[in-house]
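Supplementary Text 2. Reproducibility record for the structural model of the 100-residue chain.

All settings were left at their defaults, and a single model was retained for analysis rather than an ensemble. We include the record here because the model underlies the residue-level annotations in Supplementary Table 4.
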Amino acid sequence: MKLQHYANTLQVSELIELNGTNAAAFRDAARAALTDATTTVDVDLSHTRFLDSSGLGALIALQKTLAARRGNVRILNPTATAQQILELTRLYRVFEIVKT
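Retained model, structure tokens:
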């Protein structure tokens, strides 16, 4: 997992899997990387091969954290697998999905 800051955005990338094994570490690392200026977290799922309910829970927890700061979480370029999970769970309604 890679964390980078761009102005008021934290970008999280290089997530191969987001599941019960690493979801809590992902959530905690992203929260710890937030600065006072951070209003957006971009989670790049372009390399994510596996996403389960724990991973979704971590994304939702991060969204709640950002919402309290009047910010949001965006999902960037989800793989077909991740996109399918977001559609099946209707979480595409919660997160802004950005495909570039």
